[in-house]
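Instructor's aside before we start: the two examples that follow are unrelated to each other. I chose them only because their records fit on one page, so don't look for a connection. First example below.
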Amino acid sequence: MASGQIGGGRVSASPRRIHLSGICGTAMASLAGLLRLEGHRVTGSDKAAYPPMSDLLSGLGIAVMEPYAEQNLDPKPDLVVIGNALSRGNPEVERVLDERIPFTSMAALLHEEFLVGRESLVVAGTHGKTTTTSLLAWIYQVAARENPALEPSFLIGGVAENFGTSFQLRPTRTFIIEGDEYDTAFFDKGPKFLHYFPDALILTHVEFDHADIYSDLAAVKTAFKRLVNLVPRRGLIVAFDGSPNVTECVAGALCRVERYGFSETSDWRIQNLQHENGLTRWQVWRGGAVWAELTMSLAGEYNALNATAAAALAAGQGIGKEAIVAALASFKSVKRRLEVRAEVAGVTVIDDFAHHPTAIRETLRALRSVYPKSRLWAVLEPRSNTLRRKVLESDLVVSLRLADRVIMAGVYQQQRIPEAERLNPEEVVQALNAAGTPAKLCPDVEAIVNEIAPQLQSGDVVAILSNGGFDGIYEKLPARLRELQG
């Protein structure tokens, strides 16, 4: 049983029937689990369910009603939580409005039910949120072996492998939460993280993203500045020091700000970073001396940054160094972050939740460090609302050039993006080929599998890059490789 399903939460004095429309979103599925722990009766619906959240909901005994329909709200719930992917015209939204069924957003209900009266530790940033939140939660969990009062409640935008779940509820004070900058709901266009009122905050990166809701980088920075403005004077902000955008966003903070990174002026400075024999090792310097020697199994410079940020915030909240070192050494990973999905005839198939050119670049750099002698394939589905648009097309080409071979799928639901704004995969493929990186556009998953499976050789690494189900390619490609072996 996942730790998120074990008792230790508080049971609501007045259990309600709560329906989650859009329950398969990572945060929504986690909220469903938290509500179950409080004793509420939870139902949910979505247009499609796929792992890992479909597996988590199945383990909770929550059936996903597909597709959206008015009758999914029978019998009428006490409250409907409307996911941010839903808009006017959705049959469940329309029934809620017609019948004035009480409704709210995920972020607002999370605050009301779980954050009030607790210490809110928020991890925010364009990249690294999920892994950093998981690392921070695991540090607290390890520290709780000596002091049970430190055992955290948490909500993470992915399944943390150390816990086997994306949520946990305990009757203790600390609640660790991933702070998403995406909008809250069709009736609340502000970022989700503005509902979380952090007592302490990690800010990893600030870049232009979510091109469907933010007009430009300035709009993104405004959102993060508003988050910084919610941290009380007694609080703490741990912020990456390698980004001018982050520096600008924390400049107006009225609390203590500590910076982490590789700079000589970093409060938490990373030095002597190396990856050998499946382990990443580095030193963290503080005040001109070595504070700790850290080791973990995650690869990549960006993961060392994520871990250092989590260590800095935990230390700032009073967690002992020994617990921090032990937690990082025993940290596993997060589902869909450099996750090895299959190894067939010497071919390694890896799943990564790529949503932005910078994330793709860092993923491929990490894989280069782990598999330095392998031929690296990148198979990309432009699925996120940023990757589906051409605004970062040139950055995408630069990132994909880190691979030896590139396969592009068509733009996901391209008809929903105006043609003038839409990413042109043909142009990306042409630019890659012109730059010397062999690339090809394949219209669908069947074509991708048929194209690359016969070409794959022992020692190859295939990085499948998508923030969605990608039509089951994670199962279809290994199955085809096994067929070819047979």
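Example two begins here.
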Amino acid sequence: MFFERPKTGEVTILVQLSIESDKEREDPIEFEELALSAGALPVEFISGARKQPSPNYFVGSGKLEEIASAVRAHKAQVVLFNHALTPSQERNLEKELQCRVLDRTGLILDIFAQRARSHEGKLQVELAQLQHLSTRLKRGWTHLDRQKGGIGLRGAGETQLELDQRMIGQRIKSIRKSLAKVRSQREQGRRSRSRAEIPTVSLVGYTNAGKSTLFNALTNAEAYAADQLFATLDSTLRRVELPNFGGAIVADTVGFISHLPHQLVEAFRATLEETASADLLLHIIDCAHESHIDYIDEVNNVLKEIGAESVPQLQILNKIDLLERTKPEIEYDENQIPKRVWISAQKGIGIDLLQQAVSEILAGSLVSETIRIAPEQTRLRSKLYEKGFIEDERIDESGFYHLEIRLPKQELERLMQQGAVLEQIPELIESSDPVWVAKEQARTA
């Protein structure tokens, strides 16, 4: 029911008013991109201004007649409003315009319905749609206000509207139960990664900022990426090996947008929890977009809403190939911690710098040491090579490995527990290699 969409676009009239009482104005360019992403064919953009929305139609009588004339002239099938309409306003507008009317929330829900691919994604979208639909049932059932009485015509004592509300309520309850299982499975996966001490890096950002393109560049994956709003709905996780650090999990997530409908935040909470529980957020920013400063604030607002505002964040200024005289680089704060990286995910520019910055943040602080391990600890040595920790090595006359390494402090502590010995502390070295001890004592004298 919710996922059948016409293959061709629909002739559409776009409407946006400037309301004096609104502190934040909607972006008309973004509104048109949303309409195109939904498969609409915009033929006219009607704008205007009002002090307050009309309680009956949102727009005034003159603007309503202008919209009706445009609908008749273009034989439009849909009128999209870049505002949140009440159920009564939608019903009144549809009655006057004699075509479908959708507000901003309904438009975003429709895009999500088209993009959903996984079973979980479809459940989340359906939950959000049912919650939105439950307040708008009256429009379709005015002809069935009461069931008929009389012999053979008496029903269950409920109106059609009540029956629909009850069925929707039951379906919402069933979906919530299924999503609770998904949440439990995700939590189990997070606990497993925590036990294995594998950190999670979550990609967040405004929709169409380039998150999936960067995800593919980092992980060599083939996640769907396109120049359209909400190309990604299903969270994807991949393991990557970071230089001088080791393994980490990278998670690609759904993009954010200004005034993201509350129903979507609630429905996608299982997916968004992946963001709230991450060790590091990579905030992807389309630095070539004129409104990218405003988009940063919008993303931070959503992060606050899902409880992820305290997670460490690294800003990724993407699409530098669209700017003049901009080079890839890492910017550091006053504590010499990376705070911003300039890259182009599509062109593969600066990806190595991004990996370096992520490694530095996850590691806390990297240390350079020389360690000594026994000849029988070849498995430990191979793991160090696998993680890219070893910068140089030599083997002494007794077969002991002397490794120059650069790695996180916690990894060094773990190595010490596994039998590795720091060469800087001669008294900890086993006396089985007196030649080496004598050399070390001479070096440190």
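The two ends are 81 Å apart (CA to CA).
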